[in-house]
Amino acid sequence: MINVRESPCDEAEGSVAETDQRTTRYGALPVVRAHMADLPKALQRIAKYIIENPDLVIRQTASELAIVTKSGPASIVRFCQVVGFAGLQEFKFALAGDLASRRFQAPDANHEAQTNTDLTHELAERIVQATRETQLLLNQNAIDRLADAMVKARRIDVYGAAVSGLIGQHLAFRLLRVGLPAHAIVDTTYAAYVASGLGATSVAIAISESGMTEETVEALRRAKAAGAFTAVITHSHDGPIVKYADEVLLTAGVTSPLTEAKSVIAFTNLMAIEVLATMLTIKLGLLCPAESLT
Predict the structure, then answer these.
(1) Cα–Cα dist 1/258, whole Å
(2) Which residues fall within 8 angstroms of residue 51, CB to CB, at 6 or more apart?
(3) Cα separation, 149 vs 205, whole angstroms
């Protein structure tokens, strides 16, 4: 669902002239690509992020986009106007329609079976590649330190919103299976209140694909301020949430073969969780390293 709450700088959008007809005719992504070479470097950075992450962009506010593109909210609005839109809200609606048309466009009947086979193969290859990248990204020392803290903890809270909340519930389930006192909190507003009551015997783990979901960031910030050991599982190495994490489990994203956007696919996050769960199983003496995990 598109977030229509924008920053105050969007209030001036109504004074912009009527949207260029080419944006309606050609869609958002083709227009961004067409403008790319002529844009100033600062706006090129915004364009590059949009082309690579359209699925994320339609859910982000001007402030969030400003953070990940290292620009300002006013620059985000200016970019939208330069490529022919009244402002960010209108651009995101066009972008959402652009993505929908790509995803649901029916292939030619003569090639439908081959297309499905190709897409399945391509997606599988991308998942395998992301898994290999995650293997390289995961810091084994960070996992070991997090596992040590969790073994000693009297309480383990897991925060996450939307899909990340579902992944957080899975993590809590895996921890409960090995006897650890885990709680998954998917209401991130509630999580922020609860986090303030944690202490040195607690561990707080956030799941955040982008690393900048405001409520999840705030929950982990409060947990750290309260003295808890904190960690985050994320695709972003420099998102706002990272500075509040004692340990970061970095995972790779999977790009969609249809849109080339980072898909909300949990494979690599689940991989990180299973690596952590295996480490905990060994530390708790429930399984010797040489034994089968089946």
Answers:
(1) 20
(2) 29, 32, 33, 36, 260
(3) 11
3-state secondary structure of 219: helix
Name the DSSP class of 73. H
- Report the alpha-carbon distance of residue 26 to residue 14 in Å, rounded: 22
Closest CA to 249 of 222, 229, 226, 276: 276
The model's pTM: 0.65
For residues 119 and 128, what is the distance between their CA atoms, to the nearest angstrom? 14
Q: Is 113 exposed, middle or buried (0-12, 13-18, 19+ CB in 10 A)?
A: exposed
247-267 per-residue burial string, b: 16 or more CB within 10 A, e: under 16: bbbbbbbbbbbebebbbebbb
Q: Is the pLDDT of residue 20 over 80?
A: no
Quick one: pLDDT at residue 21?
41
Measured CA to CA, the distance from residue 48 to residue 33 in angstroms comes to 9
pLDDT tens digit string along 157-200?
Answer: 999 998 899 999 999 999 999 999 999 999 988 999 999 999 99
CA distance 87 to 40: 18
Question: Does residue 209 sit in helix, strand or coil?
Answer: coil
End-to-end CA distance of the chain: 40
Closest CA to 54 of 252, 267, 262, 264: 262
